[in-house]
C-alpha cells in the first residue's frame, strides 16, 4: 500500500510519515509548500496522488479544493484530518466523495471516536429542558481555530441526539445569560497541551462529564494510518472513524 502525506512538514504530518514507516507500509512521498527531492516532497497534489493509493491530508483548509480535484482525478483515496472548512471547501470534499472514498475525522484518536458515540446517546436520552450542555476544550497556544474541530464534532453528535441543528443552538460567547437548550462552548489556549475535550451535562441535581485527554500527538497519527489502511479499496463515498470500529 502506497501512502502519501499532505502537510508532511507539519508536526502531525511528520508523525504520520513515521507511523507509515513503522507499520512497514510504503511512504510514497509528501505534499508541502516547498519541494524537497531527497525526501520526495512535492508541491503539486496531482504528483503525490499519481504515486499513492491513499493520501492522509493534515495540511490546511486552503489546500482543500486543489487536493480534492487532484485526488479525484487520480482515483486516490483521501483521509482528511483538517478542520475549519468554508462552504466552497465542504462542497469540494462532497464532490470528490462521489468519485473516490473519502474519510473525514476531526480527531483520529480511538477514545475520542467512542466519546462521539456516547455524546449522541446522551443527547437523545437527557431532556434539553433539564440538562445544560457545555463543551470545554483546551489546546496548545499555537492553535488558531476555536472552538476546535473536535469540540464542534462533539457538539454535532450531541445535537444530533437531541434532533436539533448545532448551528441553531450553539453559543460561543458566554458573556451573557445562556439560552434554554443551548450547547455552550469554551476554549482555552495554553502552553503545549496536545488536546483535552469535555462534554459537561448539568441538571439541578447532578452532573455528568465525558472527557478525553490526549497525552501524545502520535495517537492521532496512528489513527490516521489505521484509517488509511481501512479506506483503500472501499467504494466511493464519505466515511468517518466510527465505521472503522464497527467493521
TrEMBL record:
Record key words, sorted: Amino-acid biosynthesis, Cytoplasm, Diaminopimelate biosynthesis, Lysine biosynthesis, NAD, NADP, Oxidoreductase
Residues annotated as binding NADP(+): 34
SUPFAM superfamilies: Glyceraldehyde-3-phosphate dehydrogenase-like, C-terminal domain, NAD(P)-binding Rossmann-fold domains
Keyword set includes Amino-acid biosynthesis: yes
Pathway: Amino-acid biosynthesis; L-lysine biosynthesis via DAP pathway; (S)-tetrahydrodipicolinate from L-aspartate: step 4/4
Catalytic activity, EC: 1.17.1.8
Localisation per UniProt entry: Cytoplasm
Database matches in Gene3D superfamilies: Dihydrodipicolinate Reductase, domain 2 (3.30.360.10), NAD(P)-binding Rossmann-like Domain (3.40.50.720)
InterPro entries: DapB_C (IPR022663), DapB_N (IPR000846), DapB_N_CS (IPR022664), DHDPR_bac (IPR023940), NAD(P)-bd_dom_sf (IPR036291)
Positions with a binding annotation for NAD(+): 7-12, 81-83, 105-108
Organism domain of life: Bacteria
Dihydrodipicolinate reductase N-terminal domain segment(s): 1-108
Class of enzymatic activity (EC top level): oxidoreductase
Occurrences of domain Dihydrodipicolinate reductase C-terminal (ranges): 111-244
Catalyses which reaction(s): (S)-2,3,4,5-tetrahydrodipicolinate + NADP(+) + H2O = (2S,4S)-4-hydroxy-2,3,4,5-tetrahydrodipicolinate + NADPH + H(+); (S)-2,3,4,5-tetrahydrodipicolinate + NAD(+) + H2O = (2S,4S)-4-hydroxy-2,3,4,5-tetrahydrodipicolinate + NADH + H(+)
A GO term, aspect molecular function: 4-hydroxy-tetrahydrodipicolinate reductase
Positions of the catalytic residues: 139, 143
HAMAP family cross-referenced by the UniProt entry: DapB
Family that this chain belongs to: Belongs to the DapB family.
Quaternary structure and interacting proteins, as annotated: Homotetramer.
Purpose of the protein: Catalyzes the conversion of 4-hydroxy-tetrahydrodipicolinate (HTPA) to tetrahydrodipicolinate.
Descriptive protein name: 4-hydroxy-tetrahydrodipicolinate reductase
Lineage, uppermost ranks: Bacteria, Pseudomonadati, Pseudomonadota, Alphaproteobacteria, Acetobacterales
Gene of this entry: dapB
